[in-house]
Amino acid sequence: MRHILSILVENEAGALSRVVGLFSARGYNIDSLTVSTTEDPTLSRMTIVTNGSDDIIEQITKQLNKLIEVVKLIDLNESDHIERELMLIKVRATGKDRDEMKRMSDIFRGRIIDVTEKTYTIELTGTSQKLDAFIEAVDRAVILETVRTGASGIGRGERILKI
Amino acid sequence: MEISGAEIVVRCLAEEGVEFIFGYPGGAVLEIYDAIFKQNKVKHVLVRHEQGAVHAADGYSRSSQKIGVALVTSGPGATNAITGIATAYMDSIPMVILSGQVPTPAIGLDAFQEVDMVGITRPCVKHNILVKDVKDLASAIKKAFYIATTGRPGPVVVDIPKDVTIAKTEFHYPASVQMRSYNPPSKGHPGQIKKAVNLMLEAKRPMVYVGGGAVLANASEQVTELVRMLGFPCTNTLMGLGAYPGTDPLFVGMLGMHGTYEANLSMHYCDVLIAIGARFDDRVVSVPQQFLSSPKKIIHIDIDPSSIAKRVKVDIPIVGNVREVLDEMLSLLKQSKERPDATALASWWKQIDEWRAPNSLYYQPSDELIKPQYVIQKLYELTGGEAFVTSDVGQHQMWAAQYYKFAKPRRWINSGGLGTMGFGLPAAMGVQLANPDADVVCVTGEASIQMCIQELSTCKQYHVPVKIVNLNNRYLGMVRQWQEFFYGNRYSESYMDALPDFVKLAESYGHVGMRIEQPADVEGALREALKLKERLVFMDFITDQTENVFPMVQNGKGLNQMDLPPHMRNLQQGTVAKERDYGNLS
């Protein structure tokens, strides 16, 4: 099953590779990973999307907690949460595709952020599934390039991850 | 007053009460070696290979309650240390390894003797730290000692670039460490402990399974008190030997791949299992489903939450320091008037004694060939279970574990997790330096000993009088055994041709060498060697080449499906294991 882990780590050199190394050394999956500093410059927050049985997810969280630089972590799937991912997608926008791509972008509440005679670059945010759906919805042949950030997540309501 | 980074390193070690550093100099650590030269608080032991330095520091740690420290240079010095670090990591041994690094401006430029030590060691250390500023050096070393020795212990590497050892700053050694991201547990959850005690009291077929965690937590006394108070059978893992006295009637021997018949069957057929500082690794429980096919409730005490429910699901997990948790349990038991059901326990013991009766460690004695088991038995008798015994890896290791009945913890020093050949001799050096007046014996084989034999030279330099028991069967014995069992007697590359004359070899290093070829000479040789208190004695026992380690649980088999020694082969056909109804023992 897909899980989203939110991890606060010390903002120190090597912390990221410790986390990533743990996943590869123990054969766990990383579907996506995002990391950036938080409002507290001594802390970074990672969001890792992984999948595995409950037993494996339990081991992953235990092993992560064992890393000296991991300060705190939660499995967002344990309760309601919000998930967002950003995608930039460059598409061919010529002939009838030009109108079609504008329409598709509007339907998915995307924004066209760069325009040339032949291309649009569309910015799209949403759950990873929504971004997948957009890619499914457009003709593969018009997609020139995509880049995605991987999911970020946060607990719904008053639930917070903070030290 | 400002002092150099190198001097800070040495001052930190002195502050930590470090008595010995095991190391080898080189370009990146010359400043540190200069600082060592200028003081006399910390003694340096010059090994012959960095692997030896780390194993020696490891043996020092295991056999004392002090912490082993190794010092190696950058590049090849650092990479040579890796096997030693991984060995300590797998067995959770507290250690601090200081490695030199190229100067900070040269890092990443493929400088001479540069290697990414922090990167290379990341998967085999508890933690590692690259110190980039001399101002952080003292606190990094303090942290290293703190992390290495607390929680589930383990090795910590501090990588120190050469310019950091030259730069100067004021020296303040922090009195304590506070880390928001690292707070090891100590006391177990009181509710869980209470539940566990109640379950123990309800047990009809209890079993106590004690691992290396009990040794590391110095919980031997508590384990012993608990087992005796309840009258439960107790087994130790390879790493736990000595945690419960090996000669006690409640002790059923080691369990696992080469465990005794009675230990393995009691483990398999118990109804309540109390796992103390043990981790259900694959050499104890090969197949978890097989193990759980005989239903049982499991209590698991471990300081590391990730050791719990990793391979085997448990019913009552207790995260905490083993000693503190056992203290709590003992005080609950002392308050309570309840005791386990005596009739059920007696019936369980009757069963265990039946399993014990055929003596699964029996071997056919011989007047012509030296049986390796016999050598260990004699060694045990002559030292009364009081010696420190280190070993390498293979058949000799298993025989030492089976036939030497350890009376006390921290006396059995072996590489259980990583299974490192070459561990025994350097580890024995560390053990002897930590315990100068004790008998220290390295039980090894002719293959293992050659992996770190250069340390005979270190032993000479520092007058380390360890006794080497070389069980020389001219084979990589355990490899040969597996080839005999599983590869149709095709002994691929497991015969050691062109062995050195170990007697002359020992003598050339300045030690005493003996070759023993007759069973009748075994005891005399051991006696003579043990009398030579001031000398290293290398005893080369020419042993029976065909001897195998029994019992044996093959990979993929259950603990109730052992390959048994020849005198028990009829039992293996199932008269005990299959026809009895274990479910209704009570």
From TrEMBL, chain A:
Q: Which GO terms describe its molecular function?
A: acetolactate synthase activity
- Give the function comment from the record: Catalyzes the conversion of 2 pyruvate molecules into acetolactate in the first common step of the biosynthetic pathway of the branched-amino acids such as leucine, isoleucine, and valine.
Source organism of the structure: Parachitinimonas caeni
EC number(s): the record gives 2.2.1.6
InterPro entries with a match to the protein in the record:
Acetalactate_synth_ssu (IPR004789), Acetolactate_synth/TF_NikR_C (IPR027271), Acetolactate_synth_ssu_C (IPR019455), ACT-like_dom_sf (IPR045865), ACT_dom (IPR002912), AHAS_ACT (IPR039557), AHAS_small-like_ACT (IPR054480)
- State whether it acts alone or in a complex, and with which partners, per the record: Dimer of large and small chains.
Write down the Pfam families for this protein, in alphabetical order: ACT_AHAS_ss, ALS_ss_C
Q: Known catalysed reaction(s)? A: 2 pyruvate + H(+) = (2S)-2-acetolactate + CO2
Record's keyword terms, sorted: Amino-acid biosynthesis, Branched-chain amino acid biosynthesis, Transferase
Is Glycoprotein among the key words of this record? no
The record's family statement is: Belongs to the acetolactate synthase small subunit family.
> Is Transferase included in the keywords of this UniProt record?
yes
Pathway as given in its UniProt record: Amino-acid biosynthesis; L-valine biosynthesis; L-valine from pyruvate: step 1/4; Amino-acid biosynthesis; L-isoleucine biosynthesis; L-isoleucine from 2-oxobutanoate: step 1/4
Membrane-crossing residues? none
The name of this protein is Acetolactate synthase small subunit
Q: Where is the ACT domain?
A: 4-79
Q: Which class of enzymes does this protein belong to? A: transferase
UniProtKB/TrEMBL annotation, chain B:
InterPro entries attached to this UniProt entry = Acetolactate_synth_lsu, AHAS_TPP, DHS-like_NAD/FAD-binding_dom, THDP-binding, Thiamin_PyroP_enz_cen_dom, Thiamin_PyroP_enz_TPP-bd_dom, TPP_enz, TPP_enzyme_TPP-bd
Keyword annotations for this protein? Amino-acid biosynthesis, Branched-chain amino acid biosynthesis, Magnesium, Metal-binding, Thiamine pyrophosphate, Transferase
Under Enzyme Commission nomenclature, its number is 2.2.1.6
- What catalytic activity does the UniProt entry give for this protein? 2 pyruvate + H(+) = (2S)-2-acetolactate + CO2
Cofactor(s) needed, names only, are: Mg(2+); thiamine diphosphate
Pathways per UniProt: Amino-acid biosynthesis; L-isoleucine biosynthesis; L-isoleucine from 2-oxobutanoate: step 1/4; Amino-acid biosynthesis; L-valine biosynthesis; L-valine from pyruvate: step 1/4
List residues of the Thiamine pyrophosphate enzyme central domain.
193-328
Domain Thiamine pyrophosphate enzyme TPP-binding: start-end pairs: 392-538
Q: Does Magnesium appear among the keywords?
A: yes
The reply to whether Nucleotide-binding figures as a keyword in the UniProt entry is: no
Domain named Thiamine pyrophosphate enzyme N-terminal TPP-binding: which ranges? 4-118
Give the cofactor note: Binds 1 Mg(2+) ion per subunit.
Q: Which domain of life is it from?
A: Bacteria
Q: What family name appears in the similarity comment?
A: Belongs to the TPP enzyme family.
The name this protein carries in UniProt is Acetolactate synthase
Q: Which organism is it from?
A: Parachitinimonas caeni
Q: What is the lineage of its organism?
A: Bacteria, Pseudomonadati, Pseudomonadota, Betaproteobacteria, Neisseriales
